[in-house]
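Aim 2, interim progress. The first record below pairs a target sequence with its structure tokens.
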Amino acid sequence: MDINPTFMKIYRQSVFKVRSVLTRLLPLGVSSLMVWLFVQHIPLPLIMIWGGFLILFIGLLGTTYFYILLTENRLVIKNRMFPFLKKEFLFAEISAVKIGNTGGLTPNYIRIFSGRKKTGRMAIDLVHSNLYRCLIQDLQAKGISVHLRGVELK
């Protein structure tokens, strides 16, 4: 499906303003720096294991960096780090949208309901909480029911 570039609203913030960067990547970066400083005393296989763990962790963390695009007739949820990870939905097919949070330091998620089908939870960590009210109004203007669970509107 092609995205119409003439009318598009993007709900996204900078990756460096996201909470998960500070709570997950910063400690991982510091520990990686410590491993690098003491690399002379660590055998090569352990360094390779740590590097594999680091690549895996950053790859898994990248799956939480989704943001939302609204076009004239579609809702697009796209990943910032992996652009090939995206889902597109026609507004006519969507019956409801659920935006929620399971608590703690977990990122907010979005779930799309269309008829009898529903998507899995997609972490929308790149959508700032200040933008939720505008996003909800835009979705409701398209005739979509929006349900909130554990999300505070600012």
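The second target in this work package is listed in the same format:
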Amino acid sequence: MNYYVTVNGENRTLPARTPEVDDRIIAIQNINRRIRSGEITRREARQEQYNFVVVSTRETLPPLDQMDLGDLEAKVAEIIAAYQRPAIQAKVEASLDVLKDVMNRPEVKNLFAALDKVSKESVKSKASLT
């Protein structure tokens, strides 16, 4: 599977989602918990995020001390989203397929037809009262 992310207006191909990459993603996703628990400092967390972006995109970034941390966090979020997008899309499509199957069942179609009939009769009834 191929994963892409746009960085500074340029499409970048991300490395395959290997177990090593997955471990890095999980570590980045847990970074706030690790800061709160005192496992790492905020500075160390930013360095991990910086390294994650550089390794993932092979992009040359300004030194961490000169980088806007909002931009860094946005890049991290975009990379993680790019890796998660195919799985999320597959789950949504599977759910839609299940919903289509349910909606096409005769008993469900009959239920909606009955509800439609009741709704139309209710509108007629209200109209005749006025």
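The mean pLDDT is 90. This observation will shape the mutagenesis plan for the next reporting period.
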